[in-house]
Target: Archaeal Type IV pilin N-terminal domain-containing protein
Amino acid sequence: MDERAISPVIGVALVVVITLLLATMFAAGAIHLADFGSEREDVHDLTDGPVDGDADATAGDESHAGELVRAVDDGAGATTTHVVNYTVAADSDTAGNSLNSVTVEYESGSVDVSGVDERAAVTLVGIDGDRDGTVETDATGDVECCPPGDGVIVSDGGNTLRIEFSGSYSLEAGDALAVRYESVTNPSAGEYGVSVTVNGEVNDGGGSVQIR
Model:
């Protein structure tokens, strides 16, 4: 009789353990989603002042604040400069580590970065530590070099740009990273998807570039 009475107790214990495990998994997933959301909010807090001028320029026109990637000349078919505004999330694996790579992936068949094929086309890599619109650290010279292969790599038929760095500069939580590169060819008018990856972490796959 006593031995048969043990089974219900074990069953209850197992149910409790399984419930706790499921609750823990759900909580972890919720935290991850919340962190992703906060990173998106950080991006929308950016100003784009420094990326249109020199590395030490102050904030100017804020009409493009919050755009992950934008075209300086957004005209259809224009050959122009594109600008990335990326914010390092507080819980990101990138925070506290060196800047090693930035990858900008445009929607297939849209923006063409084939012209961005050398270091000289990357005109600014700046870190704005307090997001006040002023670049405090100019990391442009840290783009990898030299032949036979440098740190500027175009792939996916011209729709993806990867910039690799020597790792001499670190990124901290909340830093705004501005990357500016020229010789980009805009597609026809429309809205095109784009994602930015820093050190292997996707910032926001839901970004877009407006071409008029």
In short: The radius of gyration is 22 Å. Residues 35-49+63-211 form a domain with the Immunoglobulin-like fold (CATH 2.60.40).
